[in-house]
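Notebook, p. 212. Picked up where the previous page left off. The plan for this session was modest: take the two constructs that came back from the sequencing core last week, fold each one, and keep the raw output in the notebook itself so nobody has to go hunting through shared drives later. Recording the first one now, exactly as returned: residue sequence, then the structure token string.
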Amino acid sequence: MPLPQNFDAIIQEAWERARTVPGYIGELEFRALGLLAAGAPQQGVTVEIGSFKGKSTVALASIAARCGLGPVISIDPHTAPSVTDPMLGGQPSSFDDFLTTLRTTGIESQVEVHRAPSKDVAVGWNRPIRLLWIDGDHTYAGAKQDFELFSPHLVEGAIVALHDTLHEFEGPIRVFVEDILGSDRFGPAGFFHTIGWAQYRPNDGAHFRSERQRLGRRAAKLIPFVARGREVKGLSKLHYKIRRALVPHAVLSPAEWSARITPGLP
């Protein structure tokens, strides 16, 4: 949908609420996520896989509330069963802190909370999705499963975004390169800092094939560094950083973003 004219004010207000919330998304990516959320179609719900203590949830729910959109579906078991999950610092769960964030930032009524693994929530799922934000298990098996479980429910024009595609994890970058940039079901695509994003365009995605392939060739060169969950260190880490710098990942302005995607899709 077209961005609201007061988008900058909306996302600034959201950031002021979220800036002190513990989390692994900085201000630049927070604002980028808000941009993706605001530009997705009105139809459908926003699905967030991996909420931790709610920092990114504030961005998504603030946009939804101010733009009159459907609920944000937060999916997270709030435990640490995966080697790629955030450290809890001795806490048994992030759930109490997450609920505190919802309450203190005023977004509680906009968020539908599912304290469960994504595969459990996906059972019987039939709700259309406008934005799919994947920030859960960063292993290849985990990210692949999240994408495959929920992407069949994307509405035309929906946005898919994966966090940490340009960080040292195998899952997000492989899924983004292989399943999104390599698929004609998707149209415009790119990186906002470490967020990989694409617009679901099943009817005309082939028109964007060359653009996606150019981006995919650069991004694919990062996969061997992180394959099979290996740790990137030493000289390999230096080479990884050089390769990553060659992947375009600037965050677009609202005007540039609006020019990249097709608003108004159902």
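Okay, moving on. Second construct, recorded in the same format:
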Amino acid sequence: MAEGFAVVDKAAGLTSHDVVARARKVLSERRVGHAGTLDPDATGILLLGVGRVTRLLRFLTALPKTYTGEVVFGVETSTLDASGEVVATYEMHPQPEAVGAAAEVLTGPIMQVPPMVSALKVDGRRLHALAREGIEVEREARPVTVHRFEVAPTGDPLVYAITVECSSGTYVRSLASDLGHHLGGGAHLRALRRTAVGSFTESEATSVEDVVLAPAAVALRDYPRVEVSAPVAAAIAHGKAMTRHDLVVEGDGPWAVVDAEGVLLAVYEVGSAVGVVKPAVVLASAG
């Protein structure tokens, strides 16, 4: 049975679910999942978990993301990107200094309203499903963090290239739309590409047809790693909670716990009792 972690470069025109379906066929393994949905028109990094590694995907989803793309000023669309219908046009003459100043306003901790065409659920239904029925519902603004928002003019005065590094859950389409609003008009996003998820970059990615599986421990490389002795490993295999002292951990976690050979045994996180850490995921088998 196939098991492991992979960095895939998603092609345009595929949904994230399409990539998972293809990976299942390539690997002959049903248990395949992804961390962090990419829009069908977007390209770039999609992290896959295969077999038991699907249980680690929530830790990968939480990693920060880096994107490139283009903001087209003067045109708003129903989806906030190039796939939607034009809903408004504006006479705009965006200048580099003004665009840069607006991007600064949208950098740091901000409140962002998710777009209607998104995978978020409201009352148990996906927003994009409601949008297809012509239903628009009120969405609460959510806190996100934009760590970096760089803008640069292109050969077209209405198009600016952008690079965005942001927290999980940030919608770059919404940033593009908000950028247009800050300049007194509107805008939409096109040519979105995810270039990094945490420390995983394009240089490591393959097509889904050429998917290469790495060990589970690689998936958790952005988290603190703790190597444990054989006796402690045996306790971990039984899913036992431990003290911080016994596991020798510091900080807020979570922690990737490995054996002497670097094999991932479990992921531990802070427990409810003071000084106690508990297993969030256990991959090791009890002997």
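Notes on construct two before I forget. The longest strand covers residues 142-153.
Flagging for discussion at group meeting.
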